[in-house]
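Design a sequence for this backbone.
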């Protein structure tokens, strides 16, 4: 099993190094994997003038799975859109056909105090956000700048979903719900957007194949509110690219820290890219204080979803649970009475717990 490792920018290299350490430990224990690194994002731009260099894309295509850190930083903020590091992650998602983004938001009991919400509201929280990842206003054409009829400059993007795009992500949503608590909430803005009316129609049609799953629909503004009012009402949430981007950041804070949330982005056949949902955090880059757990947990998702190695995934997840139970914390989840570890020490703790 070949894994392309794209560490990226900011804290990316620091957190990815910890996940690599964990994967290598499993390799020496018999897991048959091969890792190969390549420059990506700002690092790709620095090296080849391209956030997704040809050679990196080639490696990612040839690999069975991709492990990513994060991309972006203030150094690149002034670049034209197509050269920005974010373009690297958007293009690799598109090039590899990674339309299904799974973002589980799970609250570990030890972190209940680190959540921004009251313990009774979040304890036991376990939501799966299924975000469509290669369509919507992120990729819709036309987009750009123009002069309007009044001679004023304007910027515009296109929100757009085709029927097959909605069908295949709805299938993933229903499939996930069927394996969990059989509740699926589809989030849209049907009261305003034509795209959303169409989305809802297709989701309702797919629902006929899944009578055992209870489907509900919710407007995105209400969903944003319900997530902080009563998040435990949700089991699986399925939504478009833009709404999913926003709601998954929001959901992450319920779990104590955005530094805890892994993600999987899958194609039709289960090949995947795995990355923490957080960004490159340039403000703390190079300080060895970032939380590597989201990336380590992303590598567990890789073993489960792409390699079908549930037992190995479980070992990583159990090790993470153990270090949290032992009181190990990085700065973002630190509370009095726990032990504050730096990035490398947290990686070492997970290794020891393995
Ligand atoms: C995410 C990120 C990306 C996105 C950025 C970096 C382009 O916010 O993975 O959620 O908007 O999809
Ligand atoms: Mg985001």
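Sequence:
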């Amino acid at each position: 099993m070949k894994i392309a490792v794209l560490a990226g920018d900011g804290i990316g290299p620091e957190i990815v190094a910890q996940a690599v350490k964990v994967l290598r430990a499993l390799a020496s224990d018999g897991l048959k994997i091969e890792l190969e690194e390549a420059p990506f994002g700002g690092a790709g731009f620095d090296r080849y003038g391209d956030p997704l260099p040809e050679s990196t894309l080639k490696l990612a295509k040839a690999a069975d799975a991709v492990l990513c850190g994060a991309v972006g930083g203030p150094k690149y903020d002034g670049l034209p859109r197509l050269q920005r590091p974010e373009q690297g992650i958007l293009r690799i998602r598109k090039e590899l056909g990674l339309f299904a983004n799974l973002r589980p938001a799970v609250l570990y009991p030890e972190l209940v105090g680190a959540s921004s919400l009251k313990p009774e509201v979040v304890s036991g929280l376990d939501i799966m956000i299924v975000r469509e990842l290669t369509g919507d206003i992120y990729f819709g054409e036309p987009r750009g700048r123009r002069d309007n009829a009044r001679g004023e400059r304007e910027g515009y993007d296109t929100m757009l979903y085709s029927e097959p795009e909605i069908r295949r992500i709805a299938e993933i949503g229903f499939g996930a719900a069927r394996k969990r608590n059989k509740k699926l909430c589809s989030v849209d803005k049907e009261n305003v957007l034509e795209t959303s009316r169409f989305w809802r129609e297709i989701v309702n049609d797919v629902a006929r194949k899944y009578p055992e799953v209870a489907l509900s629909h919710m407007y995105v503004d209400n969903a944003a509110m319900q997530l902080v009012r009563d998040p435990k009402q949700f089991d699986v949430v399925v939504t478009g690219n833009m709404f999913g981007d926003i709601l998954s950041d929001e959901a992450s804070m319920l779990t104590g820290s955005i530094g805890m949330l892994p993600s999987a982005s899958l194609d039709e056949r289960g090949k995947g890219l795995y990355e923490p949902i957080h960004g490159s955090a340039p403000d703390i880059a190079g300080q060895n204080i970032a939380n590597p757990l989201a990336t380590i947990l992303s590598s567990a998702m890789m073993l489960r979803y792409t390699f079908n190695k549930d037992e190995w995934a479980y070992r990583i997840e159990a090790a993470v649970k153990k270090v949290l139970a032992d009181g190990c914390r990085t700065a973002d989840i630190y509370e009095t009475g726990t032990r504050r570890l730096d990035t490398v020490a947290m990686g070492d703790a997970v290794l020891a717990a393995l």
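The longest strand covers residues 2-8.
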